[in-house]
Amino acid sequence: MLLDILKEAISIEIYGKEYYSIFSDIVEDDNPKALFRELSKYEAKHQELIEKEYKRISGRSIDIKVLDEENTERARRIFPEPLRPLNIEETKDVLKLGIKVEERSIELYSGSAQKTEDISARDLFLRLVHFEEGHKETLIEALDHLEQVGSWYGYSPLEIEG
């Protein structure tokens, strides 16, 4: 069961990495571009942490190719049309979906931490909850600012994950 949870966690991180990467490419403003680029990097780091835990528990590496292909395709299906710069309303929708992805991650990691008796896995899940809560908060702040002011605020990578 724990290996299945870890596979799902890896899938979520791959999806998030690709999702944020797409948006770092299509937003024009440097602030959201930096935000999405950093979020993509953090999701990749989380994926690596989970893969190491999978290997520690199973004694073998996970075949990441299939998971990567499936989740990259899922993320790219959001935009079947050619990618183009987004307007403010479309950007709000992107942030809302990003918030949902972070919420799903938080739920999975919180529930998994409660279910597992493996101390190392529990610690990893709790760290990931903390990271994903920070990502969610950053996205919520960006969305709130966009809705109130209609523009992006400044962004520093140190605000997301320390």
TrEMBL record:
It comes from the Archaea. GO terms for molecular function: metal ion binding; oxidoreductase activity. Residues 4-139 form the Rubrerythrin diiron-binding domain. InterPro entries: Ferritin-like (IPR012347), Ferritin-like_SF (IPR009078), Rr_diiron-bd_dom (IPR003251). This is Rubrerythrin.
